[in-house]
Design a protein that fits this description.
The chain has 8 helices and 12 strands. The strands form 2 sheets. Strands 5-4-2-3-7-8-9-10-11-12 form a 10-stranded mixed sheet, with helices on one face. The chain has a two-stranded antiparallel ribbon with strand order 1-6. It is an alpha/beta fold. The chain has one domain (38-281): Alpha-Beta Barrel (TIM Barrel), CATH 3.20.20.70. The structure holds iron/sulfur cluster (SF4). Iron/sulfur cluster (SF4) is lined by residues 73, 75-77, 80, 82, 86, 138-140, 167.
């Protein structure tokens, strides 16, 4: 049987699909260039610091990134490892162009143009091309979605993947910022570790949006975690995408927060594999390396 609307020759069909894919890629690249040109680099947001280090969590652990850390977060995780970025923003943003050298400052709230200059300066020292990607982190970057969108657009010319680290509770903000983000690293906060339930519908919508890009999820697990709540989390993530990588991160000891035992983590991972294909147990590693 032949399709009278389409080409009969399979080679013609391949050529047409290839041509359509090429045109789509070119259109995407043009749209990105236009967004980068339109980005308002005079926008300002409160930042805490900009520096380069080894990523210590989840999928990009072990890779060198440039970290742009935002100030402010609406949550209050008891184990928060960046409480300094949740308080009042510092008068100036501390920046470091190379690990181990003295820092310098830029104005705060920081203009996108100034942040791009700092990134350019950091990359200027990276003769080996060791830097893998840029992490927009916090605090919670999505408290400033317009800024994140224009910052990500302005960072495109550096041709590094852009990863957004977020607490996973702000789908409306993610929708605004998503276009120029390559990777979404979303947290899934357990009720037991937060001491209260968070907005489950917001979290589900967030997961659905995040999977429009490349995404992975991290759950910080304490010794309060129960199999029931973890199973609910696995089901929610699997309902969006069973192939979404999941990282079970035993909490780094802080205050009252304690990690589960290794045996419990093995059990939690095995349970997750009933729902998800790629599940890994991984603690934070940058602290072990003596790095920020
Ligand atoms: S979401 Fe992140 S920055 Fe905010 S309180 Fe929790 S750990 Fe800290």
């Amino acid at each position: 049987m032949t399709n009278s609307d389409g080409p009969e020759n399979p080679e013609d069909s391949c050529r047409l699909s290839y041509e359509a894919a090429r045109q789509a890629i070119e259109a995407d690249a043009r749209a990105e260039e236009e967004m980068a040109a339109r980005a308002d680099t005079s926008l300002r947001a409160p930042l805490y610091e900009i520096f380069t280090s080894i990523q210590g969590e989840a999928l990009f652990a072990g890779l060198q990134q440039i970290f742009i850390r935002f100030c402010g977060c609406e949550l209050d995780c008891p184990w928060c490892d960046t409480p300094q970025a949740r308080g009042a923003p510092p008068a100036e943003v501390w920046c470091q162009s190379k690990p181990g050298v003295r820092g310098f400052q830029i104005e705060n709230p920081a203009r996108i143009a100034d942040v791009c200059d700092v990134v350019k300066r950091i990359l200027g020292y990276d003769e080996e091309g060791a830097i893998h990607s840029i992490a927009l982190t916090g605090g919670e970057p999505l408290m400033f979605p317009e800024y994140v969108a224009d910052l990500a657009a302005s960072l495109r010319p550096f041709e590094l993947p852009i990863m957004l680290e977020t607490n996973g509770q702000r789908p409306d903000a993610l929708r605004k910022a998503l276009r120029m983000i390559d990777w979404v690293a979303g947290d899934y906060k357990l009720d037991s570790s937060m001491g209260r339930p968070l907005d489950a519908e917001a979290r589900r919508e967030f997961l659905r949006l995040a999977r429009q890009k490349r995404a992975f999820v991290k759950i910080v697990v304490t010794d309060e975690a129960t199999e029931e709540e973890l199973e609910r989390a696995y089901e929610e993530i699997a309902a969006v995408d069973p192939g979404c990588p999941l990282f079970l991160q035993p909490v780094t000891v802080k205050g009252e927060s304690r990690p589960p035992s290794g045996f419990e983590l093995i059990r939690f991972r095995a349970l997750a594999l009933r729902y998800l294909r790629d599940v890994r147990v991984m603690p934070q590693v940058h602290g072990l390396l003596g790095l920020k």
